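Feature request, filed as a ticket because there's no other form

It would be nice if the structure record came with a short human-readable summary line next to the tokens. Right now we just get the raw output. Example of a typical job, pasted below so the devs can see what we mean:
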Amino acid sequence: MTFTHEMGHIVGGWCSGGKLRTADLLPWHLPYSIFDPDPKPLVTLWCGPILGVVVPLGLAFLIKRDWMWFIANFCVLANGAYLATAWFSGDRYLDTPKLLEHGANPITIGLYCLLTIGFGYVGFRRSCIRALSSPQQISVSVAPDGNPQRNVDEQSDARERRSQAD
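Raw output as currently delivered:
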């Protein structure tokens, strides 16, 4: 999540004509990127949370694997939660206070947080249920007419119906 988010800032800064002075993308550090000059700071700032969501979702659509959807849904939820908590923390070095400082509309930030947290929570919850549920037990038996029949373990079948209802 932090890698795609910060790379979004870097791509946004480069695309808007900024000059990257320093960046840290190491996983055990708090990632950051500093552009000087940054002619369009709102583009640089918004590209982090936007590409931090779009890139993982795009990869999930391409890869079509449960583990990738797990990661993508986490990234959607985490980007929204990050902007929301950064708003409340007020730390001037975090994205939300910087967005507000450079003229971003608070309603736009609020809508972003609402959509990403809402859809991210639902998708991440679904991914967690899918990842943590046990696989279905399927057995094959022979019917009186000699044809094979699939028998799905009723407990696994009930779990499957519950996860589909979510």
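Something like this underneath would help us a lot:
The longest helix spans residues 106-132.
The chain has a mean pLDDT of 89.
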